Amino acid sequence: LNGVCDADFYKSECICQPGYRGANCELKTLPFDFQTPNINKRAGSYLKYRYVYHSDNRNSHTYDSYLKKSTKIQLLFRTRENTTDRAQTLFQITSPNRAQYVYLEIANNRLQFRYDIGGGESLISIANVLINDGKWHMAKAERYGKEASLVLDDGEGFKLNYTFGLPNGAREMDVDRDSIFLGAKVVQIKVSGYEISRDYHDSCMMDVRFDDKPLPYTSLEEKAYEDIAIKMESVNVKDGCASTDYCKGIFCPSNQICVDQWRLGECQCPSGQILNGSRCEALSDCQLCFSEGTH
Questions:
Q1: pLDDT tens figures, 14-30
Q2: What are the C-alpha distances in Å from 97 to residues 53, 101, 170, 186, 188?
Q3: Cα 131 from Cα 120, distance rounded (Å)
């Protein structure tokens, strides 16, 4: 119901729709919230993972060779942050020396995929769709060799982009399995310290997958997926994706009321009323028929 069956000569498995997990895609994933750090907190908010998975049907060397050629990232995100002046990082993976990198980001309120495997940086974006509307969006980025694709939501129309990469671009990337980051661009500057930039904050994420494998968040997921990835650090990230007090301090005109539209307070007419000029008035029978289609 919440997935499709995928099979080959060796095995079959359920490929879950975004937002679901489990052997039969029976479990809903839970969101987590990247906080805006207080002055007394460590700068930035991020999750760090170690990817330990090795394919059932390939030995360790063969699977590592596959990861050099292929990068697959998928996640759900929700934000209202304005990134016109500063981009925010959703997903980061690099080589051990950081010379090669892959970033899934939000820049200018649009989704973009940026990578340099060698030979220069390539970038693709979903340029015609603003994504800071407070709704849940699905992002899927894939690289094979120097080519890459980027999908937003259902991938229809303007929500899909593709690049063949640079003519002289490299095709393989040495993956640092110990340092996959969500929610920020993170650079290790000394043994025990990080430089944090492009921080994704006051925004939510869930159902993050790398190479089609789930990255765990909850303690139950950590146990269930311990042979896939290990959550190493969680900094300024909390459970849930709540919206509270966003109507506080908002005074609506006339007889309108403030409605919390997930981290945005918006003045609206009460149910059964319509705005006429500056005042809300009761809907007439004809207006009810037009707006609800019940008559």
A1: 889 999 998 889 999 99
A2: 21, 10, 16, 13, 10
A3: 27
